[in-house]
Design brief:
The radius of gyration is 32 Å and the shape is flat. It has helices at residues 15-33, 36-63, 68-123, 125-147, 164-179. Among the domains are: 34-107, no CATH class; 124-145 and 160-180. The relative contact order is 0.06. Helix 2 (36-63) packs antiparallel against helix 3 (68-123), helix 3 (68-123) crosses helix 4 and helix 4 packs across helix 5. By secondary structure, the protein is mostly helical. It starts with 14 loop residues before the first helix and ends with a helix. The protein contains five helices and no strands.
């Protein structure tokens, strides 16, 4: 028999922690739902529609002497049809712009990292030796994989091949090392 006079039933979680976890989950959901291309597409679409409405207003200003209501309705028809027709174009243009900007920023970050590594290599001979060794290994591996067939019966050791972008960075750094 297990009769006990003490019944301890404490909560296993803190209400403040539960609230905080809910807030973090909601913020994460908002972050995942946000897309930068949608905002840019909206701005581009608004600019295109505004341009068409201004153009339509300029054209109808001379035409609508006594037909003000017809001109107003025609301008709204042009505006809404422009929204419907230009939305996919604005969305695709925004996606291309964001892709281009992402690639540009990655290139800038890669260039800055190369510059920092190069400055460090100039100051520290150990880093320079590591870069030179990695560059010579990359060149050796490139000549080994490019010059031989490497069939199933070959007795060549299996070498680790660098990813192309890393090999290109090492090649640039080694050119800078040997040219300066």
């Amino acid at each position: 028999m297990s009769n006990s006079f003490v019944h301890l039933e404490y909560s296993t979680s803190h209400p403040g922690v539960e609230r905080f976890e809910r807030v973090v989950t909601a913020a994460d959901g908002l972050r995942k739902g946000w897309n930068a291309t949608r905002g840019l597409a909206g701005v581009l679409l608004a600019a295109m529609v505004a341009t068409l409405v201004v153009l339509a207003d300029q054209l109808m200003d001379t035409w609508a002497d006594g037909h003000l209501l017809a001109a107003w309705v025609l301008m709204w028809v042009i505006g809404f049809s422009a929204l419907a027709l230009l939305a996919p174009t604005a969305r695709s243009l925004a996606a291309r712009v964001m892709t281009g900007l992402d690639g540009w920023s990655q290139n800038v970050a890669r260039r800055r990292a190369d510059e920092r590594l190069w400055d460090l290599a100039r100051k520290d001979s150990r880093v320079m030796a590591d870069i030179q060794a990695a560059a010579s290994r990359a060149e050796d591996e490139q000549t080994e994989t490019g010059g031989t067939g490497g069939g199933a019966g070959s007795s060549e050791p299996v070498t680790r091949v660098l990813r192309p972008e890393i090999a290109a960075r090492l090649k640039r750094l080694s050119r800078r090392i040997w040219n300066e």
